[in-house]
């Protein structure tokens, strides 16, 4: 399936702020939001719309509405930084938080919980998985496995920064899931961090000290 790496000037400039180690959490949050808005445009462009007629003050005009319901699945913690941008475009979407954290020794994700319904209703036409970082791909694959088991039909993964290793793992495991991403970096380092990357996205958004 497809991988779309954004070339948009807003994405490229916002990502530069995210990468800069001097960027404060306040600016990091703002730039992640700004970048995510552009990704939201890319990620939603294939949503299906139904036509209907609308009455203007002067005459009838053709109108459109989204034909199905969408679900946003932010992966905690860092995915929460993308959520407001997507809700700006899809204010009626369900939000199903999913919590996991990567074991820093094995580099595999550990699942902590989810608000994804046990059986996803058939009126949900697209589930958007939101996570800024696609490193080894383990977290994205776990999230998609989970959502598929719950019955999701169409899933889109949206990230800010990826590594080739993670993109390949995700494409092999889930070739039906399109990937929309802000940039693709060179490689992972020996600790599983994206290089040159932006560091730990969760810590930069939500520093604890
Ligand atoms: C980060 C990131 C992804 C994951 C990516 O989260 O937000 O969820 O790592 O790595 P992977 O592709 O190798 O699985 P982390 O587990 O560090 O949790 P955090 O968001 O709470 O910092
Ligand atoms: N998670 C992050 O937050 N950053 C990385 O580079 C890899 C995983």
Structure report:
- A hairpin with a 6-residue loop joins strand 6 and strand 7 (109-114).
- The protein has helices at residues 9-19, 25-44, 80-89, 138-149, 164-173, 201-205, and strands at residues 3-5, 49-55, 60-66, 69-76, 94-95, 98-102, 109-114, 124-130, 133-134, 155-162, 179-184, 187-188, 194-195.
- It has a single domain (3-46, 68-205), classed as Rossmann fold.
- It is 33% helix and 31% strand.
- With 209 residues, the protein is of the alpha/beta class.
- It has 6 helices and 13 strands.
- Strands 1, 4, 5, 6, 7, 8, 9, 10 and 11 form a 9-stranded mixed β-sheet that branches. Strands 2-3 form a two-stranded antiparallel sheet.
- Helix 1 runs antiparallel to helix 2 (25-44) and helix 2 (25-44) crosses helix 3 (80-89).
- It binds 1-O-pyrophosphono-5-O-phosphono-alpha-D-ribofuranose (PRP) and uracil (URA).
- The site of 1-O-pyrophosphono-5-O-phosphono-alpha-D-ribofuranose has 22 residues, from strand 6, strand 9, helix 4 and helix 6.
């Amino acid at each position: 399936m497809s991988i779309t790496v954004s070339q948009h000037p807003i994405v490229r400039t916002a990502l530069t702020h995210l990468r800069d180690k001097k960027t404060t959490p306040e600016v990091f949050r703002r730039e992640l939001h700004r970048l995510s808005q552009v990704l939201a445009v890319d990620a939603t462009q294939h949503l299906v719309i139904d036509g209907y007629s609308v009455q203007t003050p002067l005459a009838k005009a053709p109108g459109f509405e989204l034909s199905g319901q969408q679900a946003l699945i932010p992966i905690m913690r860092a995915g929460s930084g993308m959520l407001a941008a997507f809700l700006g475009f899809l204010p009626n979407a369900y939000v199903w938080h999913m919590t996991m954290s990567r074991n820093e020794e094995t580099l595999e994700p550990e699942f902590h919980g989810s608000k994804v319904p046990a059986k996803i209703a058939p009126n949900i036409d697209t589930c958007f998985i939101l996570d800024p970082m696609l490193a080894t791909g383990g977290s994205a694959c776990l999230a998609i496995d989970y959502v598929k088991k719950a019955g999701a039909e169409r899933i889109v993964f949206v990230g800010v920064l990826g590594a080739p290793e993670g993109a390949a793992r995700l494409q092999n495991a889930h070739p039906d899931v399109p990937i929309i991403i802000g940039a693709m970096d060179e490689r992972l380092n020996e600790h599983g961090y994206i290089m040159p990357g932006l560091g730990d996205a969760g810590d930069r958004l939500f520093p604890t000290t």
